[in-house]
Amino acid sequence: MRTRTRRTRIRLIAWLSCLACVAAVLGIGGAASATGAGPAASAKPAATTPSCQVVYTVTNDWGTGFGISISITNNGPALTSWTLSYSYAGSQQLQQGWSATWSQTGPQVTATNASWNGNLATGASTQIGGNFTNSGTNTAPTVFSLNGTTCNGAAPDPAGADGVHHQPDRR
C-alpha cells in the first residue's frame, strides 16, 4: 500500500507541476500574474501614432517656381490654433500662400492658421498651400512641426526615391 500511495503522490505532484507550467505560460493565476511576470509583462508596447501628420505635395513645378499643397492632420488633443513650421534646404522663396498666414525667414517657413481653420479636433485635418520660387534643386522638406511638436514620427516616405511626400493611397 505504501508503494501505491507513493506513486499516487508522485503522479499528483507531476500533474500539478504540469498545470503550474501551463498557467505560467498563459499568464493566469499564481505568482506569475501577481508579480506581473509572464507574457503580458514582456509584451512590447503598441506603436504610438505621431501627434500630427503632415503630407507635403508638389502640385506644380515650372522650373523657376512651384506650387505646394500641405495636409495637416491633428492626432493629438484638440487645438484652437496652430502654427506649422518647416525649412527648405535650397533657394526656395515664398511668393504667396493661402488658407494660412505665411512667412519665411531664411530657409524657415511658418504657416499660422487662418481665423476659420484654427480649430482642429483630434483626427481632424486641414489643407493649406503656397507658391514658391526656386533655382537649382527643389528638395522637399523632411521635418515638420506643429506648435513646436515634430510631426510624422517614423512614418515612411510614401513617394520613395523622389523625396516628395504624396497623399497615401486610401483604397
In short:
This protein is of the alpha+beta class and 171 residues long. The chain folds into two domains: 2-42; 52-162, Immunoglobulin-like, CATH 2.60.40.290. The chain is built from three helices and nine strands, in the order H-H-H-E-E-E-E-E-E-E-E-E.
Tell me what you see in this structure:
With 171 residues, this protein is of the alpha+beta class. It folds into 2 domains: 2-42; 52-162, Immunoglobulin-like, CATH 2.60.40.290. Helices cover 20% and strands 33% of the residues. It contains 3 helices and 9 strands, in the order αααβββββββββ. The protein has helices at 2-26, 30-34, 39-42; strands spanning 52-61, 65-74, 83-87, 93-98, 100-105, 108-113, 125-133, 144-146, 149-150. The strands form 2 sheets. Strands 5-6-3-8-9 form a 5-stranded antiparallel β-sheet, with no helix packed on it. A 4-stranded antiparallel β-sheet has the order 1-2-7-4, with no helix packed on it. The longest helix is centred in the first third of the chain and has 25 residues, at 2-26. It is elongated, with a radius of gyration of 28 Å. The model is unreliable at 21-26, 30-45, 154-163 and 166-171 (pLDDT under 50).
Largest sheet, described in full?
Answer: 5 strands, antiparallel
| Low-pLDDT segments, ≥5 res | 21-26, 30-45, 154-163, 166-171
> How many H/I helical runs?
3
Give the overall pLDDT as a whole number: 78
Structural class: alpha+beta
Proportion of β residues? 25-35%
Element order, helices and strands? HHHEEEEEEEEE
- Quick one: CATH class of the largest domain? Mainly Beta
- Which second-level CATH architecture of the largest domain applies? Sandwich
Q: Portion of residues in helices?
A: 10-25%
